[in-house]
Design a protein that fits this description.
mainly alpha; about 75% helix; globular
């Protein structure tokens, strides 16, 4: 879901950087708004999956011999607890991955407010309150989550998948937060291109790189 969401954000970045890609200004604005909406909700769903994954960190990947074993359990109507997903954390102290996922889901939920309100024509005070502010707060939350993931991966373990996932997500989070920050000066005009559009553009691509690396990590681990 993060990969899909990042693709939506990359498309969004293209249209906020170069709105004349579609000559009709209204259509261009609608495309930007709806791709942001799709990207935001994809991130929200991805954050939910990430939280479930962090709770089930020791859940076996159902590949190889594990599949045959699971089939045997199913035939006997005794599907073992090892194959049942847990939906809440119990007993063990929270891991760094769990803490990051909790921060991430809160950040995604706050950020989603901005992609919903971005579909409507709002007055300037409302735009500040329920469009730009949730983007700043959500972006800041993504930064915190990425830093926790970076701590989990190891700050100096540059050769690992986890480090690159966290690093590129951190770059993306900074871009999205800065876009919101510069949004407060939207009406001034001077910050629209490099402040808002450019930060969205490189932020979306950074998230896409991070999500592709994460996908590669999953594929390698399941070979």
């Amino acid at each position: 879901m993060f990969t899909l969401g990042s693709i939506f954000w990359c498309v969004n970045g293209l249209f906020v950087m170069w709105p004349t890609l579609i000559p009709d200004e209204h259509v261009s604005e609608r495309v930007a708004a709806w791709t942001a909406f799709a990207g935001g909700w994809s991130f929200q769903i991805g954050a939910i999956f990430a939280l479930v994954e962090s709770i089930n960190v020791r859940h076996p990947f159902v590949t190889g011999d594990a599949v045959a074993e699971m089939k045997q359990h199913i035939k006997k109507h005794q599907l073992g607890d090892a194959y049942r997903l847990k939906w809440r954390r119990t007993g063990t102290p929270p891991s760094l991955g769990y803490r990051a996922a909790v921060v991430q889901i809160f950040a995604a939920s706050i950020f989603t407010v901005s992609v919903i309100t971005g579909l409507f024509d709002l007055s300037w005070p409302l735009r500040v309150a329920i469009f730009w502010t949730p983007q700043v707060l959500g972006g800041f939350g993504f930064i915190v989550a990425s830093l926790i993931y970076l701590q989990e991966a190891g700050y100096t373990k540059f050769a690992t998948f986890g480090w690159h996932v966290a690093f590129w997500n951190l770059i993306g989070a900074v871009g999205f937060m800065l876009c919101g920050v510069f949004g407060y000066w939207e009406e001034a005009g001077w910050g629209q291109f490099w402040g808002m559009a450019f930060n969205t553009f490189y932020g979306g691509w950074a998230f896409l790189i991070g999500s592709v690396v994460q996908l590669a990590e999953v594929i390698v681990k399941n070979k």
